[in-house]
Design a protein that fits this description.
This protein is an alpha/beta fold. The chain is built from 21 helices and 21 strands. The protein has a seven-stranded mixed beta sheet with strand order 11-10-9-12-13-14-15, with helices on both faces. Strand 6 (136-138), helix 8 and strand 7 (162-167) form a beta-alpha-beta unit. Helix 3 packs parallel to helix 5 (82-90), helix 3 (51-65) packs across helix 16 and helix 11 packs parallel to helix 13. The radius of gyration is 24 Å and the shape is globular.
């Protein structure tokens, strides 16, 4: 029977899930794990500037590849990454958190080693991560093989982060190289009953409609979902987190759901529907435009990753992918004629001028700049809603962090996303307040010869917080002044750097970038007025106050 070290086995099995790049920072307790990554012929070690950024990068990588991995050292390293893993947990992004910890003898003797407390507690960090992961395990000589298989089985099924800590001495012990990782399957009886129930409801309805969201991608169900909507011809909208899952040029696509704040045609179709089919939806406040749904999801069909609810009856152990294949196979085409929905930014008709830049110009012009297959990473805050009316080209994907909303996420996440699929053009859109938290990952983008297009919108502070504050000019909403255009110059690599203050300047920059080879990093700083916000953001904020 073949034998393999614990560290090599773990990396081998993660590679089988498509993880080629492992993010993190080195530390004296994780060297053996890093050696296993480097030794594997198809995997790479990607060192980041800090553990939080590494966690964000692994998150961005997982959003594109399906799974991601983060490796840190014990205590100080892993706790610096908790926020990133919590965001992945909130948004169902499968990232495995791997921690190298002190040798077994020190744990057994409760020895006071560095990166621990004066009263050592070798389980403290595991307990912390157990709150933001689907499963956690600490390996030893007896359980290493069994625990790795268990953790990876949960990882694959739940599509959420998991946690494994490996003592230094356990990394090199030999175990059987016979994987026993369980792949999820639907309960056949439950799947059959759920499909029959759903199809009966659909066939009896006169105005069916579909609402799609991000969990469709997380659970690998894009193919059956798109087969279902094209065969049925049901009018389809998406929540903000799910932009790009549906072809936005598809004639039955109604656009991004904006509640009563915009795109009211989609709102009214869903309101009048007698059979709303929700697929992969996350019903958070910002994703639903402040819980502005005109229907109760469980009253109709609500398809989640591992279960579905139909007319308030819950069917357990029904996988989204298999359920959607059943619907796509048996659904009948809807013959209703649908209008030509105009939910997106309209084409700019006037020539660019020397007017100061504003969000009214930037986002419609950005819509024209996008290309098929683009990967777009948008920061939280004002940009969340500015991206909602954006019409994406074919196979373009928008990545955002609407639920967790950790500012600074987008810059390192776009680094991870660009590494995950180098065949696509990566576009990052961020505000200067968020960007300054994690901007050092620009250096790693250049080190890896990545060529993203980066837009930094500079509006002199935390504008979203100004809008929510009683006094917009309060000192706590101000930030330090940075010449952001100098950031790429700190690092080795090819970069083209621009600044734009007028419509004409931005138009010339975008035309120039579009005409060039994508052979360098493009960094564009855009200056707008402090309180300039997109109309949709303004409408929603009025509803909050």
């Amino acid at each position: 029977m073949d034998k393999i070290t614990v560290a090599d086995y773990l990396i081998q099995e993660l590679y089988k899930l498509g993880i080629k790049d492992f993010y993190g920072l080195p530390g004296d307790y994780n060297f053996e794990i890093l050696e296993a990554v480097i030794k594997h012929p198809q995997t790479n070690w990607i060192g980041c500037t800090n553990e939080l950024n590494a966690g964000y990068a692994a998150d961005g990588y997982a959003r594109i590849k399906g799974y991601g991995a983060l490796i840190t050292t014990y205590g100080v390293g892993e706790l610096s990454a908790v926020n990133a893993i919590a965001g992945s947990y909130a948004e169902s992004v499968p990232v495995i958190k791997i921690t190298g910890i002190p040798a077994t003898k020190f744990i057994k003797n409760n020895t006071m080693l560095h990166h621990n407390f004066q009263n050592p507690d070798y389980k403290a960090c595991e307990r912390i991560f157990s709150n933001v992961t689907s499963a956690a395990a600490s390996l030893n000589a007896e359980n290493a093989k069994q625990e790795i298989d268990r953790i990876l089985s949960i990882f694959i099924k739940e599509k959420k982060p998991v946690y494994i800590s490996i003592p230094v001495d356990i990394c090199s012990i030999k175990i059987d190289n016979q994987p026993n990782i369980t792949l999820p399957r639907s309960n056949p009886a439950n799947l059959k009953a759920a499909a029959e129930h759903a199809l009966k409801l659909i066939n009896n309805s006169k105005k069916p409609a579909i609402l799609a969201d991000t969990l469709i991608k997380r659970y690998g169900a894009i193919e059956p979902f798109n087969s279902f909507i094209k065969k049925s011809s049901f009018p389809t909208a998406s929540l903000l987190m799910g932009k790009g899952i549906t072809d936005e040029n598809y004639k039955y696509y109604m656009g991004t759901f904006l509640g009563e704040y915009g795109n009211t045609e989609a709102y009214n179709v869903l309101k009048e529907s007698d059979c709303v089919i929700c697929a992969g939806t996350i019903f958070s406040d910002l994703n639903t435009m402040r819980f502005n749904l005109p229907f109760v999801p469980d009253n109709f069909i609500n398809i989640q990753g591992t279960y579905c609810t139909i007319e308030n009856i819950r069917y357990k152990d029904v996988l989204m992918k298999e359920f959607l294949f059943e619907l796509a196979d048996k659904v009948c085409k809807n013959e209703t004629i649908h209008p030509d929905w105009k939910w997106y930014y309209q084409q700019i008709k006037e020539a660019p001028s020397d007017k100061d830049l504003s969000t009214h110009y930037i986002f419609p012009r950005l819509q024209q700049f996008l290309k098929p297959n683009d990967l777009i990473f948008a920061e939280t805050g004002i940009l969340t809603y500015a991206m909602a009316p954006l019409k994406l080209p074919e196979d373009a994907l928008l990545q955002n962090q609407v639920l967790w909303g950790s500012i600074g996420w987008a810059t390192p996440a776009s680094f991870g996303g660009a590494m995950a699929d180098k065949s696509r053009r990566t576009i990052l859109i961020t505000g200067e307040g968020s960007h300054q938290l994690t901007a050092l990952e620009i250096g790693n983008m250049m080190k890896q010869n990545l060529t993203p297009v980066i837009f930094v919108i500079n509006n002199a502070g935390y504008t979203i917080e100004r809008l929510l504050s009683k006094k917009p000019v309060d000192e706590f909403n101000n930030i330090m002044k940075i010449d952001y255009s100098k950031i790429p110059e700190l690092f080795d690599g090819k970069a083209a750097i621009y600044q734009a203050r007028t419509e004409l300047e931005l138009d010339k920059i975008l035309n120039e970038i579009s005409s060039q080879k994508n052979d360098r990093l493009y960094y564009i700083e855009l200056f707008i007025e402090m309180m300039d916000i997109p109309p949709l953001t303004n409408n929603i904020l009025k509803g909050i106050k």
